[in-house]
């Protein structure tokens, strides 16, 4: 893969992370010019492989996660790295495909001997990389795949997750949607693990309140024409059209819902909408009630304004999104765990991550999220709210309230997760 960081801001697999002259020189000094074959691993750079989407349906989200992980890496290297060792961030594009994600994970391990894996946006890629990392004795911090099973029935000792479960996402706004907009729901659901998990969770919650499901359709990833699905929505005449799509699919669906005029008679909503997607929509297609997993505008919450200012300086014209925060936390969480363990060994770092509470300058929200020891899920808070249709970037979301993650997550003994470490 060619390193195109000068054009796109991405970091190639072989490229060292660059961040301006001073920090860039510090990261690369003495490592690429004359590598020493006999250099002990404990004195070389710590390598973090970030697997995410820079092309394909999820690229708009993957790019933001990479920006966050790059920012965290720069901060760490400016302060001496991890355990006194420089940190190299090596990025690979999974194109949103599990087979590609596995290929890139294998390449990062075999050719670059990475110490850790982070990333993934597509939940199917997350599940694949999680198993690969465990099988190869590497800790994997999943930044963006939400499927419940990752920290549920498919959990393992080496995998931790920064973003929420789909149960937490749907629980963030399901009761509000039911109470305010109606009992009859219809789903348009992306046809892979993330969407299936969301729909199952919403169905359980809404029917538990007394609601009914009027129907639904599974939509292949990469769909561009939603007209046949929207005709079915009109015929079903639901109170709530629950849109469980992701990436470019969600953007295309919102535009076409507007063209069909469905949003004028049906409340359009869902578990997750993201700053990147709202910004990509024309004003007429911005509406609905959703959940954000992190939001840049948190007046009075310590460190948030400073974080936003640093991000804007690093990436002029951009504000951090939840995806940016996911990437940022993934790298810093590994650094905190390595410091706690005094080691980069996978089992030791995994044990150090269990129960780790994010400090305020990393948590960047009112509560103090913790990686739950029983299932390795970060109990981050949710920011339910509505799209600010007439707002200008980045003022595009009206937050209703903040819901601590510990109040939304399933109890650990109900997730189906059993953690077993290697002997």
Structural overview:
- With 423 residues, the chain is of the alpha/beta class.
- It has two domains: 5-164 and 302-380, Rossmann fold (3-Layer(aba) Sandwich), CATH 3.40.50; 168-297 and 382-408, Rossmann fold (3-Layer(aba) Sandwich).
- The chain has 16 helices and twelve strands.
- It has helices at 5-8, 20-28, 59-78, 98-112, 123-135, 166-171, 174-181, 193-209, 227-236, 247-260, 275-279, 304-314, 322-341, 346-353, 360-363, 405-408, and strands at residues 46-52, 87-93, 116-119, 139-142, 159-161, 184-190, 212-219, 240-244, 267-269, 289-292, 383-387, 397-399.
- The strands form three sheets. A five-stranded parallel sheet has the order 2-1-3-4-5, with helices on both faces. It has a four-stranded parallel sheet with strand order 7-6-8-9, with helices on both faces.
- Strand 6 (184-190), helix 8 (193-209) and strand 7 (212-219) form a beta-alpha-beta unit.
- Helix 3 (59-78) packs parallel to helix 13 and helix 13 crosses helix 14 (346-353).
- The longest helix has 20 residues, at 59-78.
- It is globular, with a radius of gyration of 21 Å.
